[in-house]
Structures are given as C-alpha cells and as structure tokens.
Amino acid sequence: MGEAKEVLHGGICSASVACSPPPEALATLMYLDQQLGTDHAQRFLTDDGPWKRWPGSADISLPDLQSTVRAEVTFAAGGNPAIRRTAKNQRR
C-alpha cells in the first residue's frame, strides 16, 4: 500500500516527508529571507528537498514568483503606481 499523503494549506505532506509549501508561499519566504538576511527557505530548496519533489516544481520559476511578491509588497507599501497597471494587465 502507498504512503498516506495529505494536502495541508496547498503543500504536500506525508509521514516521512516534511511539508512542501505551495510555490507562492515559498517565493514569499525567499523574499522575506532576502529582506531579513535569513535562510529559512533553504531547507525546502535542497537538492533532494521537498521543493524538488513537489509535483510541477520544474515548471515553476521561483525567481519570477519572487519578483511578483516584490512588486506586490512595493504596491502595498504605496510604491510605484506603475506596478498597479502591470498587475492589472497581468490579470487580463
């Protein structure tokens, strides 16, 4: 019988494997690490770590998602209004 798995907040968990966060959460954690000088995301990014085993991870650009997070934070903080236009155009 296969190992029991559950989806927790969009991440994939099992009894023997740590949860892997969904891509947006991991990109946000990477952004926070960059801003705060920490390395909490690194445990998910090891060679055989949860992110590499996450289905579809090869098709997702974490640096692109991290740029999106950076733009959203800038917008939320009252930054460059052009970000609002860019975000609006991306949703179309």
From TrEMBL:
Matches recorded under Pfam families: DUF6000
InterPro entries given in the database record: DUF6000 (IPR046042)
Name of the protein this chain belongs to: Uncharacterized protein
Species assigned in the record: Kribbella capetownensis
